[in-house]
Amino acid sequence: MNGTDERILAVDPHPRMLASLEALAAARSLPLDTAATLAEARTALQSGGYGVVLVDPQFPDGDGLVLVRELRDSDVDIVVFTADPSASAPIQALRHGAADFLRKPCGPDELLLTVQNTVERRRLSRTNREMSSRLRRSERLYQFIVDNSPDLIYVLDNEGRFTFVNNTVRHLLGYQPEMLLGRHFSQIIVRADRALARYCFNERRTGDRATRGLELRLQRSGGGDPVHVDLNATGMYGDGGGDPEGGFLGTYGVARDVTERKHAEAIIRHQAYHDMLTGLPNRALFQDRLRQSLAQARRSQNRAAVLFLDLDRFKMVNDSLGHSFGDRILEQVARRLRECLREGDTLARMGGDEFTVLLPKLEREDSAARVAQKCVGALETPFELDDQEVYLGVSIGIAVYPEHGETMESLVKHADTAMYHAKSHEAAHYAFYDAGMGNRMDHYLSMETGLRRALGNQELQVVYQPQVDTDDGSIVAVEALLRWRHPERGMITPMDFIPVAEQTGLIVPISLWLLREACRECLRWGSPEAPPRLAINLSSLQVEQPDFVEGVLAVLHETGFPPERLEFEITEHLLLRNVDAVVDKLRELSGRGIRFAIDDFGTGYSSLSYLQRLPIHSLKIDQSFIHGIHTTADEGTLVRTIISMARGLGLSVVAEGVETREQLQTLQNMHCRAMQGFLFSRPLAAADMAALLGSWDGGQSMRAAALSC
Ligand code: C2E
Ligand code: MG
Ligand code: MG
Asked: What is the pTM of this model?
């Protein structure tokens, strides 16, 4: 009945009273014990288990109110049950801490009611205590959850001012929560996002649409990068919730930090549209920008240009110095090219060593050409990396909208065609598209089929250029150079077709043919006492052939050409590819008396240690250094250094591409004797070469040649 397992203790000095209480309790199934003395009562109470004590304060062994006082702070409720008729008795009892008061005599119902009331009150008060402790616990729990939430939790009043922010704001934005209370939300939102935030918070929504989410950037307290958040806001409505304007109380919600996700997304987006190595836009982004620029150009009747850039000699760098070296060079190339462009222009990497430039608005006719010239100039200066000097170059094709194409595809394709055209013409670094150019693939294929035919059709020809000893004016050697007289396209330079010949392997039979041809011709020339040497260029593919040495010896045997008059020109690139295999072959040929020269010296990238390992007799200084000998102080120093280094190694030096008397003079002052170049003679057909040699009279001819130039 009392709802708990607590017992009742009746403490009374009158045995009859105790007996009738026991009977009453038994009849109502109340758990009741009795104590006839205060001492007995104390002993019983010590054992615990009592909730209500019914006590008569008038005891022979002491004042029952003392017991009441003793129990005042315990968990036991006391009902004083006394025969004291005084009016002060209940007051006294209650003052001493009794929960209720009953006067004797009283009927069983009144007694029971009072006891039951006390029991019920105890139950209610216990429930109450439990509930509030549970409440306190859950409040603490919520507080804990709110404060430790990784998300920012906030409440705004109906004017958008903070009335609550959780602790998360501290580490997220660096504010103390108290600092924000009363402040308007817009103060922590990045300026550019404020209009959006205001719209979101001001819009009144109810029901299912009450919550809305959006992405915003929040400002940190001390400045710095903003924090991206995914924010949701729920409107709070009081009475009249159906009327959105009427009962609006404010907004609450959660803001989740998505900065990292945003960064990751930005990186992914960047990677999808940029080249990882150089950080430049990639093909996809380039096409996108081109598409937009063309739409714009069409509308405003502007012109736009696409430049297609392809690096010269990059493949060689990559093959000989490795991909990671090549990659670093590409980074430098990208940096230099970027500096040639204006802000609105787009420089993209299409892959490998190919770049494109979009000039979205051409202001002047020659703007595209000027940009191309700038790019050429920027890549002319050698690159320096790991103590290596690397000489690259670039060929550029230009297609202008609308003259050279009206669509994205046609402009890129035509710029590519023009680039290929520029590459095959030595003098031209860039070219505008021309409808007569055909495309790159057509060009390559027709070159390949043409070249296969050329050998049998006698379209190939050897021309010869003399090398002069400028001390005595004698012609000491002639260099054999290949020409292709194409039936339709006229004379094609070796720079244009040798790469195709190398890729198709045709270079091997062509080179053998040339060697045989040149040996036969050269045998007939010059004075018997001092016949000129014959210089022949070797390509790496040729040297890599397993029967290279045998092939050469067979030609010498067949033609009767003396090996000591033969000189092979090899490039540093050729050596770098497979130096061990090459060394053995060169040594074997050298053992037969054949000489070797390093051609285009100075443009290679290797250390010079190989010079000691190889049977090299001379260095031919690349013509680019000779051309720059007066214009750049560096080139002058470089040529001087090469000459003195060669002397130190016991090698002779030939200056290539000597065109002016000033160059001749300067080189002579540097003690360079042997020279080759247009100043003395252009490459000549065999008959013309024979005639030149016949009429050549040393110093006089040389001086005449020099003067006439
Ligand atoms: P190279 O061996 O360095 O030949 C010298 C090049 O410079 C020749 O170009 C020659 O015409 C040019 N030249 C000579 N003097 C001057 C001058 O004063 N000024 C200027 N601007 N140029 C001058 P060419 O004949 O067009 O040959 C280009 C390259 O093609 C050669 O460079 C060589 O590497 C390669 N080549 C030519 N014939 C053969 C060949 O039979 N086999 C192989 N593998 N390569 C060849
Ligand atoms: Mg050469
Ligand atoms: Mg050369």
From this structure: 0.54
The helices-and-strands tally (H runs, E runs) of the chain is: 27, 29
Token representation of residue 461:
């020809």
CA 598 – ligand 2 centroid, Å: 9
Domain range summary for the chain, segments of one domain joined by + = 7-128, 149-264, 279-433, 463-708
pLDDT band at 244 (very low <50, low <70, confident <90, very high): low
- Is 182 within 8 Å of 161 (Cβ atoms)? yes
Which amino acid residue places its CA nearest to atom 10 of ligand 1? 683
User: Which range among 122-126, 304-308, 574-578, 580-584 shows the weakest confidence by mean pLDDT?
Assistant: 574-578
- CATH code for the structural domain at 279-433: 3.30.70.270
Query: Which residues are near ligand 1 (CB < 6 Å)?
Result: 465, 481-482, 493-495, 498, 511, 514, 537-539, 569, 599-600, 623, 656-659, 676-678, 683
Of all ligands present, the nearest one to the C-alpha of 539 is 1
Which ligand sits closest to the CA of 680? 1
Half-sphere exposure of 76 (CA within 13 A, CB side): 28
Which ligand has the shortest distance to the CA of 481?
1
Residues paired with 24 in a beta bridge: none
Closest residue by Cα to atom 43, ligand 1, is: 537
Are the beta carbons of 612 and 587 closer than 8 angstroms?
A: no
What is the third-level CATH fold of 7-128?
A: Rossmann fold (3.40.50)
481-507: burial string, b at 16+ Cβ within 10 Å, e else: bbbbebeeeeebeeebbbbbbbebebb
The CA-atom distances, in angstroms, between 470 and each of 379, 658, 661, 663, 670 are 34, 12, 12, 12, 12
- Which CATH number is correct for 463-708, 3.30.70.890, 3.20.20.450, 1.10.460.10, 3.40.50.12780? 3.20.20.450
Residue-wise pLDDT tens digits, 436-470: 777 666 677 778 888 989 988 899 999 999 999 99
Give the pLDDT score at 266: 82
